[in-house]
Amino acid sequence: MNKKGKGRLKYLLQQTEIFAHFAEGSQTKEKKPRGRGRPASKRRAVEEDDEEYLQEEEDALASSVGTHLLVQPSCINGQMRDYQLAGLNWLIRLYENGINGILADEMGLGKTLQTISLMGYLHEFRGITGPHMVVAPKSTLGNWMNEIARFCPILRAVKFLGNPEERNHIREKLLQPGKFDVCVTSFEMAIKEKNSLKRFSWRYIIIDEAHRIKNENSLLSKTMRLFSTNYRLLITGTPLQNNLHELWSLLNFLLPEIFSSADTFDEWFQITGENDQQEVVQQLHKVLRPFLLRRLKSDVEKGLPPKKEIILKVGMSQMQKHYYRGLLQKDLEVINAGGERKRLLNIAMQLRKCCNHPYLFQGAEPGPPYTTGDHLIETAGKMVLLDKLLPKLKDRDSRVLIFSQMTRLLDILEDYLIYRGYQFCRIDGSTGGQDRDASIDAFNKPGSEKFVFLLSTRAGGLGINLATADVVILYDSDWNPQADLQAQDRAHRIGQKKEVQVFRFCTEYTIEEKVIERAYKKLALDALVIQQGRLSGQKTVNKDDLLQMVRYGAEMVFSSKDSTITDEDVDRIIAKGEETKAALDAKMKKFTEDAIKFKMDDTAELYDFDGDKEENEADFKKIVAENLVVELPRRERIRNYNESEYFKQALRQAAPAKPKELRIPKMPTLHDFQFFNSQRLNELYEKEVRHLVQTNQKKDTIDGEDEDQVEPFTAEELEEKQRLLEAGFATWTKRDFNTFIRACEKYGRNDIKGISSEMEGKTEEEVQRYAEVFKERYTELSDYERIIKNIERGEARITRKDEIMTAIGKKLDRYKNPWLELKVQYGTNKGKFYNEECDRFMLCMAHKLGYGKWDELRSAFRKSPLFRFDWFVKARSAQELARRCDTLVRLVEKENQEYDERERQARKEKRLAKKTTPTKQAASRVSDGETAPANPSKKNKTPTKQKMTPTKRAGETAPAASSKKRRQSLMDDFLGSGKKGKA
């Protein structure tokens, strides 16, 4: 073990004796073999050894005293709070002892500021300017850059992000030794650009949201271990939420010399029957104490206003009940038999969609055309509640954050906010970095009129400061309660001036009640820290839990088809919500007390809190059996046993063959981009299903009793259905549609040939037909405004390119040989490095190759003999040539405009001259006594002017002509024309 490693181990052993268990192996393995020694002439003197030992003792003494700041570094702007300064001192102590650490303060306590202040301390007091690397989620990079510029502007920060061309520019111009202090990049970019980042020896590698590397086999975790660094710092608000192995993965990343074996780590915390839980908790705390700092807002931020959570329960509309019942009946066999977990998880997801809004299902929303109206609110219980709640919040000058897991639900909420006239911002997983930062700034700026901020729970819950809002609405709850906590902490953080209210929406007597209850159980178990040597928490919900959730509330759903949405006042609903939250807290308190009483080997029982699993299962089967009267004829029924058939066979009597039931055809999935007539197809399909169901029921009636008149489904309707299916584009996939849109952006909507060249497996005729339908019915697409805007933007680029090519061509047409004669009117825009010959060649080649072919233009410069020794031009990148060409194009367009103006003026003067000249000539002849000719149409022919050829003076030479011939010869050779210059 090297000197630095020994010092680190010494510090850890001073902190706690538990590391001796892990360090023994490290010390014994790294002892160097003694060997036979060195010759006496090369042995060190005793005095030298004593001097080295003395130096080591002095270093140890200095490190034991350490640095303790009483005031923040002067390079840090703003005022750090006391606990933040304490956090900085803790980070400095880790640095001085050569220890990596985990900054795990609760979300909203300023972990970013504490980290920036550490880099500022190193810059100001130690003269260490970096380089440091911050690796964070893409959504937080803008916040990191803003915070560095705001709190420590002396640090030169570079955001390493963008497309390949932008990254290449950053790599060549900014990410160079001595030109930056901090590199801020994303997880994905660290993986893509690992070879570029491996060139540096980093002082600090800082990983934000460090739970991303809890799997030591992940690509990100492996990549981060490749970088050379002196120190590593992990930042996370949720450090201990899974199991011991993931904790070992973090410790192994921080201290690979000590925590080298996962098996050893697991053995150390293996619980036997004689050990009690408290001992294991104490051992874990001893392990983590030296390098993990965890503080809660309730402990350190006394001035932060409180946070109050209220669970608001709502009923379901008639449409929601219809879909909820249908989902349970559709997958009845899976629910009764307890099918595989994946299918149960899908059922749970569909039920949760139904609780949010029935319009999330294809075909539920009336249209096309799709309209925004009261039906958007009345068809979902949560929307009714939201419509009551928002006016009250606006009247009291509150500002609202609305979180949902489903981005399609955010689309519905966006339509609702537009319908009600509320101003809003939105961020989800598809929002770009610049748009994200612009939305946050627009919401947070003083005097902002934005009332609502729509966010997706996962994408909007990280690294965003929205403390200007004081109300958080969780439209639906996440399976992982930590995600909901992160969402709440977007508002409940430093800088918040008001009490934060959290309204958690829950649809009563549905799966959502169980999801919320399970989330609270998980949080309660997280507080226990350990179960059987494992840190609390199950990563995923198990199959039994899913079954209980799906079956919950079936009786209430089937008992009535009417809407259960109440007309209660919103204040009364909030009061009920407070009671519901208090009851749930009491239940969780009892649950926690009972869980602590369990033995460590009874952990599996902790999640089976209800204890009525078998009773619930029986009740569910009974409820569904009693209510499946009309709905289930859509399923194929098979009789396993028939007494009549049995006795007929026993008596060898041939039983009459039972007529085969007609199978109900499956309705194909109709996507909007396939341009089916969905409304009419749905009508025909429903009518056909009713016809087949009634026909089958008639066959099953005893003695052929005819209960209902069978609704006819005619051959004409069947033919119409087939024709409508053929009229759509059933073979076009989402990938084909996206390719078509990109091709339209590239070539324009009218260039069918160009679009067809991009489409794989589609003929030009198919593309032509699709393009015609697209032009007529594009408004049926769900996001047609965005699609058309992108296409029009691409067509504008094509138009601009054509304009540029026309302008260059017009300029070149004014010269007999533009390769030699073309001149550019620079004005004040003449560059210092590009000469006229270079600009002339660039314009001519751009006209020949086409505007935008920058790589080909760069290659042409390098191959041309004219620039054989022009190293400046040959060293230019394609992007630099593009910028120069754009400058020349602007000059050419300005020159063409002036030229056209002069031409128009000359033509105008010529027309005026023609009108005035005959009048003047006639007046002159009259004044001289001449008479007008008899036939005015016959005019005297003007004598032909002789062509004057200038004579060459004696002794005069023509060097310009000789140089011109030489350049012409070089140009002809380069262009491959094979022509020789004429004398």
Q: How many domains would you count in the coordinates?
A: 5
**Relevant CATH superfamily of the largest domain:** P-loop containing nucleotide triphosphate hydrolases
CATH fold label of the largest domain: Rossmann fold
**Most strands sheet:** 7 strands, parallel
- Poorly predicted regions are 22-46, 57-64, 529-539, 596-618, 628-641, 650-658, 701-707, 934-960, 977-983
Shape: globular
CATH class of the largest domain: Alpha Beta
What strand order characterises the main sheet? 3-4-2-5-6-1-7
Taking all Cα atoms into account, the compactness measure Rg is: 40 Å
Helix/strand structural class: alpha/beta
Please give the alpha-carbon distance between the first and last residues. 83 Å
What average pLDDT do the residues reach? 74
Report the β-strand fraction as a percent range: 5-15%
CATH architecture level-2 label of the largest domain: 3-Layer(aba) Sandwich
Q: Work out the helicity level.
A: 40-55%
- The helix tally amounts to 41
**What's the total number of strands?**
15
Q: In words, what does this structure look like?
A:
It is a single chain. It is built from 41 helices and 15 strands. The C terminus is likely disordered. Keywords: ATP-binding, Chromatin regulator, Hydrolase, Nucleotide-binding, Nucleus. Belongs to the SNF2/RAD54 helicase family. ISWI subfamily.
Secondary structure blueprint with pairings:
Blueprint: H1 3-15, H2 19-29, H3 46-65, H4 82-96, E1 101-103, H5 111-125, E2 132-136, H6 141-151, E3 157-160, H7 164-174, E4 182-186, H8 187-192, H9 194-197, E5 201-208, H10 219-224, E6 228-235, H11 244-254, H12 262-268, H13 277-288, E7 292-293, H14 297-300, E8 307-314, H15 318-330, H16 332-337, H17 341-356, H18 375-378, H19 381-395, E9 400-404, H20 407-420, E10 424-427, H21 433-444, E11 452-456, H22 457-460, E12 471-474, H23 481-488, E13 500-507, H24 511-528, E14 530-531, E15 534-535, H25 543-551, H26 554-559, H27 570-597, H28 613-627, H29 643-650, H30 678-700, H31 715-727, H32 734-747, H33 752-758, H34 764-777, H35 784-812, H36 818-821, H37 836-849, H38 854-863, H39 871-874, H40 878-927, H41 959-975
Parallel strand pairs: 1-6, 1-7, 2-4, 2-5, 3-4, 5-6, 8-13, 9-11, 9-12, 10-11, 12-13
Antiparallel strand pairs: 14-15
Helix pairs in contact: 4-5, 5-6, 15-17, 17-25, 24-25, 24-27, 30-31, 32-33, 32-35, 33-34, 35-37, 35-40, 37-38, 37-40, 38-40
GO molecular function: ATP binding; ATP hydrolysis activity; ATP-dependent chromatin remodeler activity; DNA binding; histone binding; nucleosome binding
Domain Helicase C-terminal: 385-536
InterPro entries: Helicase_ATP-bd, Helicase_C-like, Homeodomain-like_sf, Isw1/2_DEXHc, ISWI_HAND-dom, ISWI_HAND-dom_sf, P-loop_NTPase, SANT/Myb
